Each structure stands twice: as structure tokens, then as C-alpha cells.
Amino acid sequence: MFVALEPRRLYRQVAEEIRALIDAGGIAVGERLPSERELAERFGVSRPTVREALIVLEVEGRIQIRVGSGVYVTGKPAFPAKVLPHDDSESPFEILQARCLIEGAIAEEAARRITPDGIARLNETLERMEASVEDASQALFWDRAFHTAITDMIGNGALNRFTGIIYDSRMSPYFEKLASHFEGPHTWRLAVEEHKAIRDAIRTGDPAGAREAMRHHLTQSQQRFSESFGEEPTRED
Predict the structure, then answer these.
(1) In this model, does residue 92 exceed pLDDT 80?
(2) Nearest-CA neighbor of 9 among 56, 42, 41?
(3) Is there a domain that residue 5 lies in?
(4) CA 148 to chain CA mean position, Å
(5) Among 12, 106, 173, 213, who pairs with 197 as Cys (CB 3.0-4.6 Å)?
(6) How far apart (Å, rounded) are the C-alpha atoms in residues 237 and 224?
(7) CB-based contacts of 199: which residues, under 8 Å, 6+ apart?
(8) Per-residue pLDDT reduced to its tens digit, 28-37
(9) Residues sharing a CB contact under 8 Å with residue 43, sequence separation 6 or more, in sequence order
């Protein structure tokens, strides 16, 4: 199951509340923020929402996330990074849910339109992705190539543009910082195996299996991003 989505922009509101707390001196430079669990209870939101808010503040340079230790205030930078535009930007979890719904249908249709060239292209991208799991930028490149190759099998230009645009929404400082905490060779290897299941269902002409394999892959991707930043330390009185 997908992690429950919060109302739009809620993670941005939480980031603003934490930022205001720091600016008011509620937490001094060098001090540790309350745990994810405590912040989630304080603001009445889910822990993934807190996690997204903390990533905003980390990219801005306001906090430092030390996996396995906690989250620490670093002060107010002279030139804070511009992380998000002033519109109703989608969160990574919204993007992954949208991809799950739409790319699941795309994979289903691709399984009805298999061609030798299409399968050969999927095989090639999988081989290159598997060889690139130690290099995040290359793994990401071939990951994108795999998903667009599936869409190409349908031959619909609008769907092709959609797949590229929604995938490229992760190419931002915010998403890159989130990925830096949760993606690595191990998760890329898991993604390769999930991609193989998608390829196999398409290759055998199994539309329902292809849809389910894509749904499973993108659900697992969201679950990986939903993990905690690490063991939250016990506070001393």
C-alpha cells in the first residue's frame, strides 16, 4: 500500500514552522531538533511529511541531517538556497503515486504491443543499469531510459513526453538531497530486479502482470523514500 498522502503543500508548511522556531531562538545553532516522531506528533502530520520538510531545510542550509545521530541546526546562511518555487509543487510521494497509476497502465498496454526491437531495447537498458549501480548518476540515466523505452513501445508521443517530464521532476536539488539519504548501490540493485520483473511480464505478453510489476516497483520506490533517516537517539535529561 502507498503511504497516505497528506494535503498539498503540508510539508512546506511544516518546514516554515520549523524555520520560524529556529529563527525565534527556540532551538540554538548546534542543537539537535526533536526526533521525527516528536515533530510528527507536534504538528499532527505523518513522519514522511516531516522528512520532506527536513529535506527542504537541509537544502536551504538551515539544518544538517546526520543519519543515525539526528538533525542539527546549522544557522542561517547568508545566501539560502532557493529550494522550491512559490507554486503548489508536488512532493516526491505525489510524483511516485502519479507514476504508479499512469506508468502501470503504460506497462499494461506495452505488453500488448511487444516487438523484438522493443524488448531488445529493454534488455540493453537493464544491462547498462545493472552495470551502473555504483554510479548514481549513470543508474539514474538508465533508469529513465528503461521507463521511456516502455512508453516508446506504444508509439504515443503525448505519453512519451509525459513519462519524460514526470520523471525529470526528480531532477531538482530537493529531490537529489532526498535521494542522497535513501538511494545507493543496494537500492539500485533492488530497482534492477524490479525492472527485470516488469521486462519479463512485457516480454511474455502479460498485460496484468506488467501493470502489477510496475505498480510494485514504484510502490517499493516510495517505501524506500519513506524510511527513517536512521536510529533516533534517546534524549538525556
Answers:
(1) no
(2) 56
(3) no
(4) 18
(5) 213
(6) 33
(7) 119, 122, 123, 126
(8) 889 999 988 8
(9) 14, 17, 49, 50
Q: Clarify whether residues 126 and 196 are in a common domain.
A: yes
Q: How far apart are CA 16 and CA 59, in angstroms?
A: 14
Q: Are residues 132 and 204 in the same domain?
A: yes
Structural domain count, the chain: 2
Instruction: List the grid coordinates of 236.
Output: 538525556
Q: List residues bridging with 66 in a β-sheet.
A: 70
Identity (one letter) of the amino acid at 119? Answer: I
* Beta strands in the chain, from DSSP E residues, in sequence order: 63-66, 70-73
Last residue within a domain, chosen from 73, 107, 123? 73
Paired residues of 63 in beta bridges:
73
Residues 61 and 132 both lie in one domain: no
My answer on whether 185 and 148 are in the same domain is: yes
Q: What is the model's pLDDT at position 232?
A: 47
Within 8 A by CB and 6+ apart from 15, the residues are 53, 54, 56, 57
Range of the domain at 23: 10-73
